[in-house]
Amino acid sequence: MSEKVDISLLKEPDWATTYCLLPDIRTLASSLGEFGQMAPVIAQQGTGIIIDGIQRVRLISGNRHLNERFGNAVEVKWVECNDLQAMILHVQMNRARGNVMARKLSKIVKLLEFSAGFKLADYERLFAMTFDELELMLDGSVLKHRKVSSHSYSRAWVPVEAPAGVVESAEIDIERPPNADR
Amino acid sequence: MTRQRMFLDINCLDAARMRIRHVYDTFDTVCVQFSGGKDSTAILYLAKEVHEERNLGPVKVIFRDEEMLSPSVVSYVEMVRNFDWVDMEWYCLPYGAEVWVLGRRQTTVMWGDKRRDEGRLVREIPPWAITAYDFGLDHSKNLPEPLDFYQMQGKKGSVAFITGIRAAESMVRYRSLVQKLHENYIVHPFGLSKSIPLKFAKPIYDWNVNDVFKFITEEHNAPYCEYYDWAALTGSNTRVGIPLHATAIRRIGDVVATEPEFYDRLYECFPQIDAQRRWWPDFDVEKLIDEYASDGWSGVSEFIRAYMIGPNKTKRAKSFVAEFRKKHIADPHSYPINYLIRNLLLNEMASGKSVSPVGPRTRAHTVRQIEVDDYE
C-alpha cells in the first residue's frame, strides 16, 4: 500500500547509481505534468531515503508548476530494510531498466564486498552478475583491465621499403574501440 | 611505394628516449603538445626525464583547449598545469569544429562570440587562457592562419612540438609515420608555410596502449586522466577529444556511459545531438547511400542540399565533388558515385585532402569487381 507523503520527509541517497539525461528529464516532467504520478516512489521506512523515484521527487520539488500541481506531496510505498538492502533493491530495480552508471555501481559493489563480505554467488543471485563483470566492478581501473603489470614493452621499429607484393593493411594492428558504435 | 616495419633489437621505451634526446639536441625550442590524453601524458613524462637529466627547468607545454572537453579531461589538465615542473601555455582559439548528426554536417566556431552571447559555450574561457584577442583578433570567426602559426609566436629559433601520435591509432597515422625513411618521426606540419621553422616530433610512434599506461604508471607512478578508468568500466573507447565530429559522435554513447553530466551540457548547447544518441544504432547508412547514389549526379546535388548545413559546409562539399568528378570521368569503376556519397556522409572532408580510389573489401569495390567481370 502507498500513502501520500510530504516531499520534505524524503531524502536523496548519496549512493544512487542512476543518472537521467536532460532530454529524458524534460520528457518525464512533461509526463508528470500531463498524467500525474503513475507509480509510487519507493523509500526506506524510518529514514525516508528514496530507493526508486529520485528524478520524480527532484522534479516535483524543484519545478514550481509541478510542485503546485502535486501539493508538495507524492505517493510513497515504504520498504522495511537496512541500508545495504536499500542499495541492493535500488540496483535491482534499475539494472533491469538498463540505466545504471557503471562507476557508481562499482562503488556499491565495493561497499558490499568489504562491509558485507558478499561472495560471487551473492552477486549472481542478486544482480545476475558474472565473475568477469564483478572483477571489473571491484577493480575499476584501466590498468587491471588491460593487464598492464604483466605487459612487456613492445619492440621498436623503423619504416623500410617493402618488397613487391606486401599488403600494407596487413602490416599493423590498428587499435579499435572495445565494442561497436553506440 | 609500400612500406613495412623493420623491428629493432631495443624496446620502444629505450627507442623513444633516444628519439626525444635527439629532438632536444636538434631544436632550439622544444614544447610538449599536450591534450590531457594518455599519449601526450607519456610524452610529457619523457620530456620531464630529459629536463631533469640536463637541468633545463620546467617543461614547456602547449595545451590547445577545444572547448567541448569533458570535465575529467579539463580537471586533469588543470592539475598538470599546476605542477611546478610544467610551464603551460593554455590556448582557447576560435576555429571551425564540426557537429555531425545522422549524416547532417554543420560547422560551429569553437569559443565563438555568437554562441557565447547565446549562452551556448560548453565552458567559459579560463581566465589564464591565451585567446585571439591576445593576437589583436576576435572570436567572431575562424582564425586566418593555421593554429600552429599562433602557437609558434614567441618561440626562439627552430622549434619542435612533440606529440603523442602513434601509428597504431589509425591507418592514416600509420601511413603518415612510414612515409619518410630517415627521421620518420620528425615532420613539417601540414598546411603550415615552409618558411615557419616548426616541426612535429612523434617519439612514441611505435608504442601501443599498454606501453603507454605501463610507462606512465610504472616508470613515473604518475596519475592519468580519470576518464580511462571509467572507459574501462563501461567498455568505452580510450580516446579523449571533442566528441561531435563525424567519427567521434558515432560513439556518443561512450559520453553518456562515462560522463552523462557532460552529455547534458553538450545537449544544452547543441540540442540536435540527441537524435544521434537515440537513433544512430538504427540508422541505415547503406540505404541512405543507395537512395541518393541511384539518382546519379542529381542525387549528389540533392544530398548536398539536404545534408550540408550552412554555406561553409556546402562550399567545401561542392569543391570535394568537383575534384571527385574529374576522377570519376577518368576511371568510373574506381570512383563510383556511391563511394562519393559515402565520403560526403561519413568521412572527413579536410581541405586539400584527395580522395583515394575504392579499396578491397569495400562494397563499392565488390560492385566494381562485378561490373569488370561482367564486361570481360
Unreliable stretches of chain A (pLDDT < 50, length at least 5) are: none
CATH class of the largest domain in chain A: Alpha Beta
Q: In CATH terms, what is the architecture of the largest domain in chain A?
A: Alpha-Beta Complex
User: How large is the share of residues in beta strands of chain A?
Assistant: 5-15%
As a percent range, the share of strand residues of chain B is 5-15%
The greatest interface here is: A-B, 44 and 69 residues
Summarize the structure.
The complex is a heterodimer of chains A (182) and B (376). Chain A has 182 residues and is α+β, with helices and mostly antiparallel strands. Chain A contains 8 helices and 5 strands, in the order βαββααβαααααβ.
Task: Report what the structure shows.
The complex is a heterodimer of chains A (182) and B (376). Chain A has 182 residues and is an alpha+beta fold. Chain A folds into two domains: 3-95, Conserved hypothetical protein from pyrococcus furiosus pfu- 392566-001, ParB domain, CATH 3.90.1530; 102-166, no CATH class. Chain A is built from eight helices and five strands. Chain A has helices at residues 22-35, 54-62, 64-70, 83-97, 102-116, 120-127, 131-139, 142-145, and strands at 3-6, 41-44, 50-52, 73-79, 155-161. In chain A, a hairpin with a 5-residue loop joins strand 2 and strand 3 (50-52). In chain A, helix 1 (22-35) packs across helix 2 and helix 2 packs across helix 3. The model of chain A has no long low-confidence stretch (mean pLDDT 91). Chain B is of the alpha/beta class. In chain B, the strands form two sheets. Chain B has a seven-stranded mixed sheet, with helices on one face. Chain B has a two-stranded antiparallel ribbon with strand order 5-6. Chain B is globular, with a radius of gyration of 22 Å. The mean pLDDT of chain B is 92. The interface between A and B is large, with 44 and 69 residues.
